[in-house]
Amino acid sequence: MARTATNGLSLSQLERLLDHRRRDLAKLQKQRSKIQKRLDGIDSRIESIGGPLSGGRGGRRGSRARNAVSLQDAIHQILSRSSSAMQVGDIVDKVRATGYKSNSANFRGIVNQTLIKDKRFTAPSRGVYQLKK
What does the H/E/C string look like for 56-124? Predict the structure, then answer.
């Protein structure tokens, strides 16, 4: 982004400059939103006829997978059905078996972070998790 020299500008001049940039930003965001809606419509038409989605970032559509339940809740359901503690790899397999979708290249790492951060889960030993009692 081009920078504007602000040396010697008064406070009112700086405020006008900020207002101008805010208006420009709002216009650009509105334009982007309109274009994105058109692209989404084109993508859905391409998908409806069975064509692959290409372009964009790295050939991927750029949107994340949507699931009916959060990852935390999916893990909680799995661990609540288990009679004993489970290893992270087994939890990952069970989460995927429920139909949970993720575009992550390192989904196991995401699951591991979730297990560490969520207070509902505890680790009786390294890499093994269960519900907190």
Answer: CECCECCCCCCCCCCHHHHHHHHHHHCCCCEEHHHHHHHHHHCCCCCCCCCHHHHHHHHHHHCCCEEEE
Q: Is residue 1 part of a domain?
A: no
The pLDDT value given to residue 112: 96
Q: Quick check: pTM over 0.70?
A: no
Provide the residue range defining the domain that includes 37: 10-63
User: Residue 81 and residue 100: Cα distance in Å, rounded?
Assistant: 17
Same domain assignment for residues 41 and 59 = yes
The number of domains in the chain is: 2
Residue pLDDT, tens place only, 22-55: 999 999 999 999 999 898 888 888 877 877 766 5
Among candidate residues 87, 81, 76, the one with its CA nearest the CA of residue 132? 76
The token pair at 108 is 């196991």
Quick one: three-class SS letters along 92-107?
A: HHHHHHCCCCCCCCCH
Terminal-residue alpha carbon distance, the chain: 53
CA 54/CA 41 separation, integer angstroms: 14
